[in-house]
Structures are given as structure tokens and as C-alpha cells.
Amino acid sequence: MSTPSFKSVEPEETLSLRMPAKAVRAQGVIAWSSLFFVLLQSVCSFFVALDGLRVVIGVAALASITQAGITWDKVHTDWIRVPMIAFALMGALLNLTILRRVRYLRRRSSSLWRQRPLTPRKIRLERIQLVLSLVTLALIAIEELTHFHTFHRM
Fold first, then answer.
1. Contact present, 111 and 105 (Cβ < 8 Å)
2. Position 134 pLDDT exceeds 90
3. Alpha helices in the chain (DSSP H)
4. Cα radius of gyration rounded to whole Å, the chain
5. Cβ–Cβ < 8 Å for 23, 31
6. Helix (H, G, I), strand (E, B), or coil: what is residue 8?
7. Per-residue DSSP letters for 24-67?
8. Residue 47 and residue 67: Cα distance in Å, rounded?
9. Is residue 70 a contact partner of residue 115, using CB atoms and an 8 Å limit?
10. pTM reported for the whole predicted model
11. In angstroms, rounded to a whole number, what is the distance separating the alpha carbons of residues 19 and 60?
12. N-term to C-term CA, the chain
């Protein structure tokens, strides 16, 4: 009995089974260019759809602002507005008073011996509190002025 012999594949035979290098490159160019044109078409479709979406957003914004104006008249009543402004005013003034008192206590000669330098974080937080309190007071003043000009009463 003889053992079966396997015929080895010669390099020339494998070359004939494969595609030439130019054809492979051409297929790659075709594939990438078709992908590019599909993406370009998708971008175009996206902007066409976005154009319709902008109209929907505009109509929804118009409808919502109309409804918000009706609702705002119900919410912008004195029984809601006045306590909110009073709480904001009291909070801002209390915050400013506390900051002033803390700074006064730090500067006293009797407390200088136990003072440690403030950390940059603590200084930054105190400044933020000061700015927020002043901005709150400014917004209260602006709101009261515009309310007076609009409704001719405080």
C-alpha cells in the first residue's frame, strides 16, 4: 500500500487564483469613495430633516411661550412674589451680616494671637458668598423696579 501523496501548491498557481494588486486597490478606492458619498448623502438628509425639525421647534416654542404668558400671570401674584422676595432679602442681608461679623472678629486684637492664616479655599468661599449676596440684592432691586414700572405698584 502506498501512502497518498499530496501535491504542493506552487507560488505561480496561487498568484493565478488571487486578484492582481491593481484590482485590489481599485476595489478599495471604490469602497471608500462609496462610503464617502453615502456619508455625504446622509449629511444632506440630516440637514433636510433638521430643517423640518426647526419648524417644529419654532412652532412649539411659540405655543409654549403663549401658554407660559398665561401661566405666568397666575404665578406672578403678590402672595407668591412678596414672600419669595422677603426670604431672598433676609437671606442676603443675614449672609452679609455674618460675613461682616466674622471679619470683625478676626481683626480684633484679642483674637490675633490664635489666628491661623486662612486657606485659599476659605477665602474663595467667603468671596463667593459676598458676591452672591450682592447679586441677590441687585436682582431684588431690579425686580422691584421692573415690577413697579410694569404694574405701577410695589
1. yes
2. yes
3. 11-17, 21-75, 78-107, 120-151
4. 38
5. no
6. coil
7. HHHHHHHHHHHHHHHHHHHHHHHHHHHHHHHHHHHHHHHHHHHH
8. 30
9. no
10. 0.52
11. 58
12. 116
